[in-house]
Amino acid sequence: MSEQQHTPEPWNVHMSENATGILIEGANEECVIGGCGCCGSPWGDNKFDVPRLVRCVNACASIPNYQLTGEGGEPTNLAGVIDELRKQRDELKAACETYMTYGVGEITYYRIRAALDFVKGGAE
């Protein structure tokens, strides 16, 4: 079964000055959600959640929908996934650094060194 597609990112949000009119557009400027606010805000007291929703969609742009949903349809704990990836990165970095102390061929050395430099540059 193929995965349902959603409007491509990045999404943008446009709000009227009083935040009653809100438009969320996709990458090709197509309307994802909109409301003019002529009868009051369609967003109720949560109108300022809209920019946060758009930021979340954009942050998840490269993650397939099935990876955003865990067992039983419950949302995946992305913070936990990120923490696990950081742990794996750190373990791999430590293993590479240990391996470097044993002496390796010149090509292997430069490949490992480049990988370590890349990981260290991207580490928080």
Give structural attributes:
124 residues
Word description of this protein:
The protein is mostly helical. The protein is built from 4 helices and 3 strands, in the order E-E-E-H-H-H-H. It folds into 2 domains: 60 residues, no CATH class; 46 residues, no CATH class. A 3-stranded antiparallel β-sheet has the order 1-2-3, covered by helices on one side. Helix 3 packs antiparallel against helix 4. The longest helix is centred in the C-terminal third of the chain and has 24 residues. The two termini are 38 Å apart.
Low-confidence stretches: none
**Overall helicity:** 40-55%
Order of helices and strands: EEEHHHH
- What structural class do helix, strand and pairing data support? mainly alpha
**Quick check: average pLDDT?**
77
- Beta-strand proportion: 5-15%
How would you characterize the largest beta sheet? 3 strands, antiparallel
Ends apart, CA distance between termini: 38 Å
* Total number of helices: 4
Instruction: Give, in spatial order, the strands making up the sheet with the most strands.
Output: 1-2-3
Rounded to an integer in angstroms, the radius of gyration calculated over CA atoms is 22 Å
Shape: elongated
How many strand segments?
3
Number of individual domains? 2
Layout of helices and strands:
Layout: E1 12-15, E2 22-25, E3 31-35, H1 50-59, H2 65-68, H3 78-101, H4 106-122
Helix pairs in contact: 3-4
